[in-house]
Amino acid sequence: MEIFLEKETALVEAILFLEADPLDEAALSRISGLGRPAVDGALEALEERYGREDSALALSRIGGGVMISIKREYWDNLKDHYGKKNESRLSKAALETLSIIAYSQPITRSEIEAIRGAAPDNMIRLLLEKQLIREVGKRDVPGKPAQFGTTREFLKFFRLESIADLPKLNESEADRFELSGEK
């Protein structure tokens, strides 16, 4: 029985290794042909294996899915060589726009401009191209402006399981992300 469990764990590990995006347990079950209890057991075994001090890998939960990643302490040393240097870097303006969207979503262009004090059009275009944000609906006001929110790619980029994992803002920071009289 133990050999069978090791093979199940190895199969789930191989799937996670081959996938570039996080997979939820249902997808892992479907791809592996294993039942949900076997997938859950394999994930527990991998978490235990990767949790040891002698492992540079981690099982990361991102946006409701699971993926294999490098532990943060190792990634900080390796990201310049292995990371997508130029693609993953965001300008200060792009990061500012992205943080406004992340903390205030759903939010329109004009609301971003009111908070930021500058037109966000180029930054929104860049963030859409990088798939860090997406249109999530229309505001029910005249003109029906598009509202933006973050994506699963955003969660993956910042290694967050959900938007609730964003760092908490102190009172003065929170005030900066609010429109006067709104939200």
Descriptive report:
The protein is of the alpha+beta class. Helices cover 54% and strands 14% of the residues. It has helices spanning 2-18, 25-32, 36-51, 72-82, 85-88, 92-104, 109-116, 121-129, 152-157, 171-176; strands spanning 57-62, 65-70, 107-108, 133-138, 146-150. A hairpin with a 7-residue loop joins strand 4 and strand 5 (146-150). The longest helix is centred in the N-terminal third of the chain and has 17 residues, at 2-18. The protein is elongated. The protein starts with a helix and ends in a 7-residue tail after the last helix.
Q: Give the distance, in angstroms, between the N- and C-terminal Cα atoms.
A: 56 Å
Number of helices: 10
* CATH top level class name of the largest domain: Mainly Alpha
**CATH topology heading of the largest domain:** Arc Repressor Mutant, subunit A
- Low-pLDDT regions: none
Based on the coordinates given, report the CATH architecture of the largest domain: Orthogonal Bundle
The radius of gyration is 20 Å
How many structural domains are formed by the residues? 2
Strand arrangement in the largest pleated sheet: 3-5-4
Helix content: 40-55%
CATH superfamily of the largest domain: Winged helix-like DNA-binding domain superfamily/Winged helix DNA-binding domain
Our estimate of the beta-strand percent is 5-15%
Arithmetic mean pLDDT: 85
The helix-strand sequence is HHHEEHHHEHHEEHH
**C-alpha geometry:** elongated
Q: Number of DSSP strands?
A: 5
Q: Major β-sheet, in short?
A: 3 strands, antiparallel
SS-based class: alpha+beta
